[in-house]
Automatic annotation (TrEMBL):
Domain of life assignment: Bacteria
Protein name according to UniProt: Threonine/homoserine efflux transporter RhtA
Gene Ontology cellular component list: membrane
Keyword Transmembrane: yes
Pfam family, one: EamA
Alphabetical list of InterPro entries matching this protein: EamA_dom, EmrE-like
Transmembrane segment boundaries: 7-29, 35-54, 66-86, 92-113, 120-137, 149-166, 178-199, 211-229, 236-256, 262-283
Keywords: Membrane, Transmembrane, Transmembrane helix
């Protein structure tokens, strides 16, 4: 098989699995924090095994890198917990759509690190995202479940954007699997004091679900996504990643009966279109 075809197969498989990951926020009857902690235990073990099997280095190069990965791990932990919580308090479609405000957030956050200014087209994308989010929110009241889901999802997007910026600027010399393994390890250490009490109460069925989530729906798709980047540009992979919204919403509707409303679909189309546009423009500016 041609390397490009292998890369496309890998990235589409990864995004498909990422989309199905959202379903576990409903399938596993545990709070978001505990799900994140326990999935991380399996994911870090799987990633460590892959790294050792491939003969890649495990240790980081400098002490400063350990400080950087500590920050990255805290951001990843917050991103995962708030993302799952967003879907638990509202719906999977709302949570995933709110998460995909992160490409536009990235455009406005990067100047804080690089010193440049957003382009005027980025401002238009930002306005589009605001309008898309406006359509998602039925009423601006904090006791409304959808509003809560949007706010938690946007907080998750903010943490994800910050994590990606910091990793891209200060940690890019490390392979994706190695970087992720350390970040998940930090996630475990951060969440363990808050979520360890639930471990004795987890049922056998839930452990099976968490094993699937950690290995098949966390470690595997991240490994596939990293593999795809060897064969074509990150821009292409990021554009394909926007299909995660479609997969998550579609399977939530078909398997869980969570059918999105017309305004949710319209708002989602606007947000995802802005995300795809910003991803495309970022690739052209490189």
């Amino acid at each position: 098989m041609h390397p490009t075809h292998k890369g496309l197969w890998a990235v589409h498989s990864a995004v498909f699995l990422f989309g199905l990951t959202a379903l576990f926020s409903r399938l596993i009857a545990l709070p978001a924090l505990e799900i994140t902690l326990l999935r991380s235990l399996f994911a870090v073990a799987a990633l460590w095994a892959v790294i050792r099997w491939q003969g890649d280095p495990v240790k980081l190069q400098t002490r400063g890198d350990y400080a950087t990965v500590l920050l990255l791990g805290v951001l990843l932990a917050g991103h995962w917990v708030t993302y799952f919580h967003a879907m638990q308090v509202s719906s999977i479609a709302v949570g995933v759509i709110a998460l995909y405000t992160f490409p536009v957030m990235t455009v406005f956050l990067e100047p804080l690190f690089h010193g440049d200014r957003p382009h005027w087209v980025d401002v238009i994308s930002g306005i589009g995202v605001v309008f898309g989010i406006y359509l998602l929110v039925p009423e601006f009241r904090l006791d409304n479940a959808t509003t809560q889901g949007v706010l938690w999802g946007m907080l998750s997007a903010l943490l994800f954007a910050l994590r990606n910026i910091v990793q891209g600027r200060y940690f890019r010399r490390y392979p994706a699997k190695q970087a992720l393994m350390y970040q998940i390890l930090i996630t475990i250490l951060v969440l363990l004091p808050f979520g360890s009490a639930v471990i004795p109460q987890v049922s056998t069925a839930q452990w099976s679900q968490l094993l699937l989530l950690g290995v098949i729906f966390t470690a595997l798709p991240h490994t596939l996504f990293a593999f795809s980047l060897r064969n074509f540009k990150a821009k292409t992979a990021s554009l394909v990643a926007c299909l995660q919204v479609v997969y998550a919403s579609l399977f939530a509707a078909l398997l869980l009966g969570e059918w999105p409303t017309a305004t949710t679909i319209l708002g989602g189309l606007i947000v995802v279109s802005a995300a795809m546009f910003e991803t495309y423009m970022a690739g052209r500016r490189v």
